[in-house]
UniProtKB/TrEMBL annotation:
Name under which the protein is recorded: CinA-like protein
Family per record: Belongs to the CinA family.
Record lineage: Bacteria, Pseudomonadati, Verrucomicrobiota, Verrucomicrobiia, Verrucomicrobiales
Domain of life, source organism: Bacteria
Entries under Pfam families matching the protein: CinA, CinA_KH, MoCF_biosynth
MoaB/Mog domain ranges (all copies): 4-174
Length: 411
């Protein structure tokens, strides 16, 4: 099916508001087994009229976000009615819901809000418990021209996302004739590159009939997307898991930090971090996960040598003799974090992010990662990521978290 997304809003083109709807809707529809063929963003007002006229003639399903407000530049309803040759009528129930919303928040409804109850005749009103603008579903063949199903969804994410989940998937499935057995699995890997999959798995995956395969590579991570009937996807998932068991972060789309927090929770363990070159980014990733407060105790940011000594008890003589970026200091940082926090596991990183500060012995991109586990010998590994500063930090975070993950899997 030809599925298109039309995002409306001048602020999206001025750069004052980031357009996240296209990516979010694309992923949500992909999970249904439907692919977005085109995404367009237009300014408020007359461009919306033009874009909807084009969209309903070209697409089988058109999803429009924004333009459902009460102001003069909110023209989405009017544009759809005009493009499809359908009369706009005031929906009594929608009006009562809008009035009730204002009563609930203790405000008088402005006359302009009455406009939000205008619905193309024969269309379905999509409830919006999180705002004043109801959504609209216009079934195909309701209007003139080519048959196109149109969804009008509000712009604010806190309104759009709940409405999508409640009102859109079952209608799209029916329109696209997609059975419940169609599924998608997203598997995440670290420590290997896209070429490893091509060399080890591509021919074997291509031999599985009815399977669609896609890759998304980023620094220190490769995501593998498997789409097809449930049995086909499961066959492929098992094959990939057998080939790269140690490198697989998850087979359910969970991020590395989410997997680490889940493993810590499952095993009843606590973690602390000691960071120099990453400046607290590892702790930030862990605490971005809901439930991290149950397993995360301390995040030490010991950027200077003085901080390493004061916060973590790293011996000044060791710093002088070996330098901050060394196996000795990485181990001492991890051990110090473990002792100071009372945690069960501590991970520490110290490196040279650049662009300056490197030497022949320790070039920019060098990092040592220490790992301390209560009751075990402290370990450390050296890695080399000669990248730009931001990419270097991301790759260090990934390696450190993956070291923790591997310890926890075998704990």
């Amino acid at each position: 099916m030809q599925v298109e997304i039309l995002n409306t809003g001048t602020e999206l083109l001025l750069g004052t508001t980031q357009n996240t709807h296209g990516g979010w809707l694309g992923a949500a529809l992909r999970n249904l087994g439907v692919r977005v063929a085109r995404q367009v963003t237009v300014a408020d007002g007359e461009p919306v009229m033009e874009a909807i006229k084009e969209g309903v003639e070209r697409a089988d399903i058109l999803i429009v976000t924004g333009g459902l407000g009460p102001t003069s530049d909110d023209l989405t309803r009017e544009a759809v009615a005009e493009a499809m040759g359908i009369e706009l009528i005031e929906d009594e129930h929608a009006l009562r819901v809008i009035e009730a919303f204002f009563q609930k928040i203790g405000k008088e409804m402005a006359p302009s809000n009455r406009k939000q109850a205008l619905i193309p005749c024969g269309a379905e009103v999509l409830p919006n418990p999180n705002g004043t603008a109801p959504g609209v579903y216009v079934p195909p063949r309701l209007g003139k021209g080519a048959p196109c199903a149109v969804f009008l969804l509000p712009g604010p994410p806190r309104e759009l996302y709940p409405m999508y989940h409640a009102e859109v998937p079952h209608r799209v499935r029916a329109l696209a004739d997609i059975g419940e057995s169609h599924t998608m699995v997203e598997m995440k890997f670290t420590g290997i590159g896209e070429s490893d999959f091509h060399e080890s798995l591509d021919s074997r995956l291509q031999a599985i009939r009815g399977l669609e395969v896609g890759y998304c590579a980023r620094p220190s991570e490769v995501d593998l997307r498997l789409i097809g009937e449930a049995e086909v996807v499961e066959e492929a998932r098992q094959l990939v898991a057998e080939v790269f068991p140690d490198e697989m972060i998850s087979d359910d789309g969970r991020s590395l930090e989410k997997v680490v927090v889940d493993l810590l929770t499952e095993k009843g363990l606590l973690i602390a971090t000691a960071e120099s070159c990453t400046g607290g980014a590892i702790a930030s990733r862990l605490t971005d996960v809901a439930g991290a407060s149950e397993v995360f105790t301390h995040g030490f940011v010991s950027y200077s040598n003085a901080a390493k000594s004061q916060l973590l008890g790293v011996d000044e003589a060791a710093l002088e003799a070996h330098g901050a970026v060394s196996e000795v200091v990485a181990k001492a940082m991890a051990e110090g974090a473990l002792q100071q926090s009372g945690a069960d596991i501590a991970v520490a990183v110290t490196g040279i992010a650049g662009p300056g500060g490197g030497s022949e012995e320790k070039p920019v991109g060098t990092v040592w990662i220490g790992l301390a586990v209560r009751g075990r010998e402290v370990a450390a590994v050296r890695a080399f990521y000669p990248k730009d500063r931001a990419t270097f930090k991301l790759m260090v975070e990934q390696r450190a978290l993956d070291m923790v993950r591997k310890v926890l899997v075998r704990f």
